[in-house]
Specification:
- The protein has a two-stranded antiparallel sheet.
- The chain folds into 2 domains: about 130 residues, dinb family like domain (Four Helix Bundle (Hemerythrin (Met), subunit A), Up-down Bundle), CATH 1.20.120.450; about 60 residues, no CATH class.
- The model has no long low-confidence stretch (mean pLDDT about 90).
- The protein contains 7 helices and 2 strands.
- The protein starts with a helix and ends in a 9-residue tail after the last helix.
- With about 190 residues, it is mostly helical.
Length: about 190
């Protein structure tokens, strides 16, 4: 298994654990993502898995929607992406993406794999779970978070209705690393439903 595939699998395991831990009555809870419920957070992650297949002319396998069955929706989408990563030729093939021409596995690593880390925090926060992000992930995210280009914060820059990051939320310079990163990524670290 490649390093990227292994990183994806670990992040997907963490995200799946958060999904399965959601109590049934909490799926409609608001999330830190404006206008999204907890179920919408999972729906977004499922949709982003589909976006990884799109450059290859593929689509997600038939499965329940995240609104119907969040666990089944994510499990199916995950299997589709893991199949791409398991095939060395497909993983290494080059695709055109909004971020430029990259390999399939790089595209997965930079987009949906990373997305699960941040949206895992959103899901945990929305549903009353432990929202601690793995310290190794925080260390890895810190240099990039400090250099977010302005266009990432412009609603619609990457297409109609697409909002990548909200405005920076100011936190004290001596705040814990997780809070500083969340602030840079447009999250209020102290948000509650």
């Amino acid at each position: 298994m490649s390093e990227i595939a292994d990183r994806y699998r670990k992040r997907a395991d963490v995200f799946a654990a958060k999904i399965t831990a959601v109590e049934p009555g909490r799926w409609s809870n608001p999330s830190p993502c404006e206008e999204w419920t907890a179920a919408d957070v999972v729906g977004h992650i499922v949709d982003m898995h589909g976006a990884m297949l799109h450059p290859l002319g593929r689509a997600l396998s038939p499965a329940p929607s995240a609104a119907e069955n969040p666990v089944a929706a994510f499990t199916s989408a995950r299997a589709d992406v893991e199949a791409l990563l398991a095939d060395p030729d497909t993983a290494a093939s080059m695709v055109d993406t909004p971020g430029g021409r990259v390999s399939v596995e790089e595209h997965i690593d930079r987009v949906v794999s990373e997305d699960m880390v941040l949206h895992g925090w959103d899901l945990a926060r929305a549903t009353g779970q432990d929202d601690t992000i793995d310290p190794a992930e925080l260390e890895r995210m810190w240099p990039t978070a400090q250099q977010i280009p302005d266009e990432m914060r412009i609603p619609g820059h990457f297409g109609p209705g697409i909002v990548v990051l909200g405005p920076e939320v100011k936190v004290p310079e001596d705040a814990p690393l997780q809070e500083r990163i969340l602030g840079l990524l447009g999250r209020d670290p102290h948000w509650t439903p």
